[in-house]
Structure formats: structure tokens, C-alpha cells
User: Which sequence fits this backbone?
């Protein structure tokens, strides 16, 4: 069993601040934990808009506080987000994430994030070293 607290993670290597200042990610479970997923708490700061496009990952996001919206850039649909809303990016969905009030999001990634990944200019994280195996497992 592994037990970690937010207090331990804040200010450690497991806390990653976005270069553009839009969010902070506290990474409770990472690739090295061999769980098959990574598990994070992300705070999306009020007044921000973030372009995200996880071309190499599936992400589930559950909002437990704050308010905002997600815009699906393929369909143009806008979905409000508040405490109790989950979205699953199961199709590498390119999107815009906007926060009106600081949003507290609980996120799970497959394949797992390995450490201190940061969005590139397209909002993408680099692929996991064994991305193909994870893709095969998802499709099996
Ligand atoms: C909700 C979301 O995707 N925010 C960006 C950061 C990401 N969740 C992370 O690395 O924790």
C-alpha cells in the first residue's frame, strides 16, 4: 500500500506548475508506482483558458470544486463544469478549458504520466515509452 498526502506533495518534485501559470498539478500516482495509470489533483486557476490536446493519453477528469467549462474543438459544444461533473477524453479530444472560479480537478491518465510532463505548444504531453502496449491493452 502507498499512502501520500497533499501536504507531502506540495513543493516537491511531484508538484508541477504550468509554464503559462494557468494550472498546478499534484501528481499522487506516477508511472513508477506501476498502477497502470497516473492520478493527479489539478487546480485550474480562475480567469484562465487552456488549450489541451492529449494525442497520446486518455484522461478522466472529475471536478470536486469551482466552476468553468470545456469546449470540444471538434464539435464546438461547450459543457459547463462544476462540483460533480466528470469528463472523459476518450478520443484524444482537442479542447479548451476555461475556469470562472478556481477548479479543483481529480485526474487519471492512461498511459501514466511519468514525472514532470508539461504541455507543449499544442497542449500535448509526450507519449509514454511503452505507449503501443497501453494502446493494445485498451483495444483488447
Ligand atoms: C484538467 C487538465 O487536464 N489539466 C491540465 C493538467 C493535467 N491534468 C495534469 O497534468 O495534471
Assistant:
Amino acid at each position: 500500500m502507498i499512502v501520500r498526502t497533499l501536504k507531502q506533495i506540495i513543493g516537491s518534485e511531484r508538484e508541477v506548475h504550468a509554464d503559462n501559470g494557468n494550472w498546478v498539478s499534484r501528481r499522487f500516482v506516477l508511472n513508477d508506482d506501476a498502477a497502470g495509470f497516473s492520478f493527479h489533483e489539478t487546480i485550474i486557476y480562475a480567469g484562465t483558458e487552456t488549450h489541451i490536446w492529449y494525442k497520446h493519453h486518455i484522461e478522466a477528469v472529475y471536478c470536486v470544486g469551482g466552476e468553468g467549462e470545456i469546449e470540444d474543438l471538434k464539435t464546438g459544444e461547450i459543457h459547463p463544469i462544476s462540483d460533480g461533473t466528470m469528463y472523459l477524453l476518450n478520443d484524444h479530444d482537442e479542447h479548451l478549458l476555461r475556469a470562472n472560479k478556481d477548479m479543483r480537478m481529480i485526474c487519471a491518465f492512461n498511459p501514466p504520466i511519468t514525472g514532470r510532463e508539461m504541455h507543449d505548444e499544442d497542449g500535448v504531453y509526450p507519449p509514454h515509452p511503452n505507449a503501443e502496449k497501453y494502446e493494445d491493452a485498451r483495444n483488447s
